[in-house]
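Margin note from the TA: students keep mixing up input and output lines. Inputs are the sequences; the output is the structure of the whole complex. Example:
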Amino acid sequence: MNERPTRRVTMAQALIAFLRNQYVERDGVKQPFFAGCFGIFGHGNIAGVGQALQQMPEFRYYQARNEQAMVHSAVAYAKTKNRLQAFACTSSIGPGATNMVTGAALATINRLPVLLLPGDIFARRNVAPVLQQLESEHSQDISVNDSFRPVSRYWDRITRPEQLLTALPEAMRILTSPADTGAVTLALPQDVQTEAYAYPEAFFRERVWRVPRNRPDRGMLEQAAAWIRESKRPLVVGGGGVIYAEATDLLRRFVDQTGIPVGESMAGKGSLRYDHPLCLGAIGATGTLAANRIARDSDLVIGIGTRYSDFTTSSKTAFQHPDVRFININVAEFDAFKHFALPLVGDAQATLAELLTLLAGYHVDENYSAQARQLHTEWDAEVQRIYDVRNEPLPSQGELIGAVNELSSPDAIMVCAAGSLPGDLHKLWRARHPKNYHMEYGYSCMGYEIAGGLGSKMAAPERDVYVMVGDGSYLMMNSEIVTSIQEGYKLIIVLLDNNGFKSIGSLSRSLGQDGFGTRYVFPLNGVLPDDTAGTEAQTLPVDLAANARSLGAHVIECKTYADFVNALAAIHTTDRTSVIYIQNDRYLGVPGYGSWWDVAVAEVSTNPQVQAARTEWETMRAQVRSFLEG
Ligand SMILES: Cc1ncc(C[n+]2csc(CCOP(=O)(O)OP(=O)(O)O)c2C)c(N)n1
Ligand SMILES: [Mg+2]
């Protein structure tokens, strides 16, 4: 019998040796899939994965400060790399592991790859309960890591070393699949991590995972072309899939050839340059007047790489044409079928290329195109108007966004996630290249901003990375400033302090609740004061600039718009992560432009303001579409 060669190593050593030899290839370009491993060690991973990482320094280990944050960094890295490269994340058992659950949900919702390796309780069980173990009287087959199941695209627990042989190929299939990607969780019992096994040598061979450009069904493509030719007012909704598929050049050709205008989702902003005459900018709840006007009367919506979140569809009120139909180009069948669409299940590049050929000679009606171009021009003027507001004494958020946009290099990356910034940025940011606008808005997770900025900078060290973050998000997670300094990745953090939650404050007022619980102020007469308290409310003695300085960042404190502009210029001379701190107005907001977002309002209340908000909600609720007609 032929003896096949084996390699006797621990499970953790096998895991790292396997990961470092995984490659992806798209369009003939091959690269290693993993950029390394973020981690925080504890007793649940130090002797296993920790030992393996020390032994194999070529698979670079990065020390994070918080497990949730390291998953954000990993995810932002993958997003910046258009999902062609990713990170592994190792944690101890218990709280180190569950800290990653939020990151896992964020990755899966945003369809971004990350490999999570939480440590787990002993598989041999004889010393249970171990430190940090969740005991159950019903089963010994439960640990806190089961909480990763619903937020992972693939979940497994490796209770014998040889299970890696079947688990890792599945993990790679999911991570490198444009349709199925998300968080992959392999729970690793601490004893099994250290157990040796004679793995077949072939397991450690270089593997190349090809990322395909699948093409849709030909008959459906022809039908789509026919629908487009029949349409009077077609509209493209550009989603994240346009960017991940690197289909932005093709989209521009599609728009130039057909005259069809484009509205962009949060993940899709940058699909078309902001100054293209048929770019209508943001669509939906945080959309522009241009995109929302065109959407309202569109009879054919061509969704490309979008999952149609409630923000994109204004909670299904954005499209009001009685006979509106949808064509969805998407790698994921799940998304392609949404809104009873004609599903073109395929890669955005491959599909647009074929569709273009089928649409030879077709152009939308000139009046329609002219209307779209006119709306584009009017919108650009509105952006400029908001950029040019000079509010006193505190500057407006809109003018600060304008300054960052205008004074940052056109090839910079702006990273943001939660608060009032995403809505304002979606409308106001002038995206000059597909990676210019990095918004995490699938999970809109406070705390993503700085950690995500780090991941983005690691993926694109040649670009300036601007992190735009509110005081609430900053307080929730600022830890990765330290990691950015440790690793020499300079972030430019723009910290906008408005003493609490501007976003939820304004939402609260719109619901008749006076901003209750959204201000960072001292209790007044035993309760936390809301917006009606005015100047009676006393702000907290928190010094966020000093906080950032204490973490090692270079800090520039600004009071006025002029200070802010100077700081944006001075920031290029600093040698490390730098924070531009400025207070801004809590109440001055950017308006909505013909949009709505469904937030449930109390059906009965003793408060007349709440009753009024409910009546308004009922009016809008009546406009919600189910798209059964298409
Ligand atoms: C982890 C998390 N918790 C809660 C929320 C709900 N939420 C959305 S925005 C927001 C306030 C954000 O405050 P800040 O960062 O200061 O931004 P601002 O609204 O002031 O612009 C909250 C609590 C969230 N998105 N994420
Ligand atoms: Mg705030």
